[in-house]
Specification:
Layout (H helix, E strand, L loop, with lengths): L3 E10 L18 E2 L7 E2 H11 L2 E9 L3 H17 L2 H9 L1 E7 L5 H9 L8 E5 L3 E4 L3 H10 L5 E7 L7 E5 L5 E6 L8 E8 L1 H14 L2 H6 L14 H10 L4 E5 L4 E4 L3 H7 L18
Parallel strand pairs: 1-4, 1-6, 4-5, 8-12
Antiparallel strand pairs: 2-3, 6-11, 7-13, 8-11, 9-10
Helix pairs in contact: 2-3, 4-6, 6-8
């Protein structure tokens, strides 16, 4: 697989880990985690490597100015992984254009993405989104998504994994053909199985992200608050809200389930405790597979 120069990988990392205050030193995305018997590496590097394996030739970390430790640890991990890798992974890492885009602290990851997507260099690119504090399996998930995007009419593809805590995440309600019907964002368990954690999309959705962030910042909106589709209020513009808007505006949003996959958000104290490896053997991430048919 040749490097896909038309796709840019984006990892928003401009916020502060307020939920982990007192539990870690430095950036949460730099916490060391282990996959199988491999040496521990920063959690964010797992996403970078998955994008590289999928043939994404350019990856941008949207990094807050207070996260210099993250840049240092990722560069160290890049050198160590490239030196130890063989075959396709070695070639991908050697050719990877890894950039760090200095980003001011923003109200939400959506705003962080919007700042980058407003750049004319990214305006017409397909985008692969990964959250740098989330571990996911299989490692080939982005390869599946990008191959599907290239042969489908979808505007957005969501990589979906079995959820452990539905009330803490975005649960997807999809049709039999994989088309997204709606998202349930941090709602009580409704018997749904999958949460989306990664995504790829075409430029039409990038434009929607930029417009949504600008509307959110409108003083008139701030004065009356934000009403959600489920009738609740929210103080943050979740990426899921923009995905819901995309469905409402007629964009084709589809789900790609990985039924044997997994995802873990180390941005929560509970998951951090489960995966950190400073004083132990670390998390052994399992293999996951894409749902067939």
């Amino acid at each position: 697989m040749k490097a896909n120069v038309s796709v840019v990988g984006l990892l928003p990392a401009a916020g502060r880990a307020r939920r982990l205050r007192g539990l870690i030193e430095g950036s949460k995305e730099a916490v060391q985690v282990r996959r199988g018997d491999e040496p521990p590496i920063p959690v964010a590097w797992h996403a970078v490597e998955a994008l590289a394996l999928a043939g994404v030739g350019r990856v941008e970390l949207l990094v807050g100015e207070h996260k210099r430790d993250l840049v240092q640890r990722l560069e160290a991990a890049r050198g160590e992984r490239a030196a130890a890798a063989t075959g396709p992974l070695r070639r991908r890492l050697d050719g990877l254009d890894l950039r760090y885009r200095a980003t001011p602290e923003t109200p939400s990851p959506t705003h962080t993405l919007a700042l980058a997507l407003a750049d004319e260099q990214l305006r017409d690119a397909d985008v692969a989104l990964a959250f740098p504090d989330i571990l996911f399996e299989p490692r080939t998930a982005f390869a599946w998504l990008l191959e599907t995007l290239a042969t489908s009419s979808a505007d957005v593809l969501l990589g979906c994994f079995p959820a452990q805590s539905p009330e803490k995440t975005d649960m997807v309600e999809m049709g039999s053909n994989g088309v997204l019907r709606r998202l349930w964002i941090k709602q009580p368990d409704r018997g749904l199985r999958y949460t989306w954690q990664i995504a790829v999309w075409r430029p039409a959705f990038s434009r929607l992200v930029v417009a949504a962030a600008r509307r959110w910042d409108d003083p008139a909106r701030a004065a009356v608050g934000a009403a959600c589709a489920d009738g609740s209020a929210t103080s943050e513009l979740h990426v899921g809200r923009v995905i819901e808007q995309a469905v409402e505006e007629g964009l084709e949003v589809c789900c790609v389930p990985f039924p044997h996959g997994s995802c873990r958000d180390i941005g929560t104290p509970e998951e951090l405790a489960a995966v950190r490896v400073e004083s132990g053997p670390g998390e052994r991430a399992g293999d996951g597979g894409r749902e067939s048919g």
